[in-house]
Design goal:
Layout (H helix, E strand, L loop, with lengths): L1 E3 L3 E3 L3 H8 L14 E4 L4 E5 L6 E9 L3 E6 L6 E10 L2 E10 L3 H23 L2
Antiparallel strand pairs: 1-8, 2-8, 3-4, 4-5, 5-6, 6-7, 7-8
Keywords: Glycosyltransferase, Transferase
Organism: Nonlabens arenilitoris
Protein name: Orotate phosphoribosyltransferase
């Protein structure tokens, strides 16, 4: 299952946005207010959304100033969450991409909440 957020503009340069996203504690600023959030070391964090199981994500890959990819640390919900970063005239633009392998029933159940979550994260990036 592939889901994409809308592309958002930020005031941060690609370097600033990349550095922000490679620090896992900063993701708390992007999460909805009612989200449980805990850091686990320098490269992992746990979050919990209403109606969804708690998920632990870890920094999986980072390509300086263009991409940051987080991956689930659980085999039960294997997925990645990537942020593609591009330079624009007055800062940068970013798009979040969720990619996971789920059975049809699971995909149907989580598609709506994940899409909503991606849009909330994108809105958080836009406010930076």
């Amino acid at each position: 299952m592939n889901l994409e957020s809308r592309t958002v503009q930020t005031q941060k340069t690609p370097q600033e946005l990349f550095e922000f996203l490679t620090q896992v504690e900063n993701y708390k600023q992007l999460m909805p207010d009612d989200t449980k959030f805990e850091t686990h070391g320098d490269d992992k964090f746990l979050f919990g959304l209403k109606g969804m199981p708690e998920i632990k994500l870890g920094l999986q890959e980072s390509i300086p100033f263009t991409n940051v990819t987080l991956g689930s640390t659980s085999d039960k919900l294997a997925f990645t969450l990537s942020c593609n970063i591009e330079q624009v005239a007055n800062g940068s633009q970013a798009q979040l991409i969720f990619n996971g392998e789920f059975n049809a029933m699971m995909a149907m159940m989580i598609k709506g909440p994940i899409k909503k979550f991606l849009e909330q994260l994108a809105s958080g990036l836009e406010k930076l």
